[in-house]
Structure formats: C-alpha cells, structure tokens
Amino acid sequence: MAPRKQQEIFDATLRLVAEKGYDGLTVEGVAERSGVNKTTIYRWWPSKAALLGAALVEADLLEFEPPDTGSLRGDLVALVEGIRRLLTEPPARDIAVAALGAAVRHPELDARRFFADRFARERQVFERAVRRGELKRSVDPMLVIDLLAGAVWVRAVFRGLPLTDDFANQAVSAVLGGVAT
Amino acid sequence: MAPRKQQEIFDATLRLVAEKGYDGLTVEGVAERSGVNKTTIYRWWPSKAALLGAALVEADLLEFEPPDTGSLRGDLVALVEGIRRLLTEPPARDIAVAALGAAVRHPELDARRFFADRFARERQVFERAVRRGELKRSVDPMLVIDLLAGAVWVRAVFRGLPLTDDFANQAVSAVLGGVAT
C-alpha cells in the first residue's frame, strides 16, 4: 500500500478512536472516513485492534523523535514535555487516553508494542548520558522512563490535575538529584 | 444503612466490576449479588458511577493503611509494595485495573476521589520524613507519590511486564538518591 494511503488510514483510525472511543471504532468507520475499501483494510490489518496498534506506532500524527539537547537533564525535560503534550493537548490527548485506557480492558489491543517502540528510541538518550558520565551505571533506563511517564499519567489523567509549567523541571530534578536530604 | 450491609454492597460492586468490567456493572447486578433491594441501593447511591466511586474509597476489600516503618525509605518501599499488590494480585488487580481504566473514559466515575483519599493518608509519611529531616524541603510529596505509583502502573499495566522482587527498592532508591552521577 502506498505510504500516503496508509497514513490516511492511520489518521482516520486515530481520529475515530479519539471521537468515539475504542468501542465506537470500527473498520467500517475507518473505511468510510479514509475512502479506502473495507476489504483492503482487512487484508493489511486483520482486526480493529491490529489496525489501532499499528496506527499508534506508525502514524505521523503521533510521531516521536527522541530529543538530543546535549545533556541528560535537557533530554529528560524534553521527553517529559513531549509526554505532557501527548496526554494533555488535543488531538493527541484524546487518542492516547482512549487507546491506552482501552488497552487495559482489551489485551488484544497491544499497548506493549507502543511502549516498546518508544523505549527502543528513548534508549539513545541514556546511552549518550552514560558516555557523558551523567548517569549512575546501576540505573535501569526503563525505570527512569516509567517514573517520569507514570507521573505525568497519574497527575494528568487519574488525578485530573493541571500540570504546571514547571512540572517537567520538578519531576526531572527529583529523579536526577533525588528527594532525600 | 448498617455498616455490614454497606460492605456487602461494596464487595458485590467491586467483584462485579472485576468480573464484567465497568460496562457490565449494573446496580441490578449488585442488588442481586448482595441481596439488597435495588431501590434501597439507588436511595444511597444515585448511579453505578457513584456506587463504584464510594466502593473504591470505602470498601474493606481495598483498605489502605499508610505504613509507619520509622524511615522514609521503609515507608516508601512499603507504599510501592502496596501499589504493586493492588495492580498485580487478584482480586485487587482486576478491580483496580477495570475501575481506573474505566475512569479514563467515564469522567462521571470519579477516580480523583480515590487518589485524593489515598493522598490525604499518604501525606503523614512525608510529614514524619520532614520532621526527621529526611526529605528536601523543596520537594512536593504528591510528586513523589506520582513518580512511584506511575512507574508501577506503566510497568505492570501498560508494558505488561512482571515486577521483579527488587522493583520497589530500585524505584525508591532512584527517587530518594537520584539517578545522576
């Protein structure tokens, strides 16, 4: 399939899940909105779960480029800012919250692929930090990501609280420098 | 309503949401399982969202007692262990994941009350730590909770990865001591 056509299908998929939630997402609806025949879509993605899973990773709409600011602190602040935008600014917010919320109830919608794909790219932030001598060698990079991404999710989605302009800085300072005296 | 009867209703509510998800939860189902008349339940809780919201905070099944081990490190490890059990061990796991996953799509099911109630009790851990001089004064206790609770949620629920026995220690060490060299 032509890459541009594929992006139109992914775009329609993500916008539909944002509008109607996972339960309201159908391959028929995606076919209608993207102008691509339903049987063509099914030939590439055998279910709506597979289609949404692919869209979360491959859609231009959720494109993710790991930062390279020159320091671990700068990179982590940029990562947290990106996650904040993903979880609080439309249309990404409605897509991410609907899709990740649904993944909890529908294991066939494989959120693990989304997180694994992002982490594969986030790794380079930590590899550079290790080369620059900025990160303790005993530290698991995935733990750092999970602490920071998790804090944004809990604060913005579960608590429904606004994230202050300084949230990324505070969270990164806590994780880099520690909160103990 | 007698406290014991109320706990039977909450218990039925939480077990039903774990089994059938939020969409499958009905006040009729709770009435049937708890042996309490439907109209009696509606008199106390006007909707299934209100009933589940109350059950999450008030049910003995999800009882939460903040730890008091004598040190901030000990208390935080115990808190993370408690969150790990809540999100990975049945029946709590199925209740918490179904209810919190549903709260994302159904704002009328107020997850904020669950988090606010827990945080009101977690605060004392940080108040004692400040008195013992263990916590930097600039640190926001809610940020510490959100980092740690968020990491458990991302790792266990979104990534679907097992939490090692050492996860709580590693996460608490990272947040207390920092990951920067």
Automatic annotation (TrEMBL), chains A, B:
Pfam family, one: TetR_N
Start-end of DNA-binding region: 26-45
All residue ranges annotated as the HTH tetR-type domain in the record: 3-63
Keyword terms: DNA-binding, Transcription, Transcription regulation
PANTHER family the UniProt entry points to: HTH-TYPE TRANSCRIPTIONAL REGULATOR RUTR, TETR-FAMILY TRANSCRIPTIONAL REGULATOR
Protein name: TetR/AcrR family transcriptional regulator
Lineage of the organism: Bacteria, Bacillati, Actinomycetota, Actinomycetes, Streptosporangiales
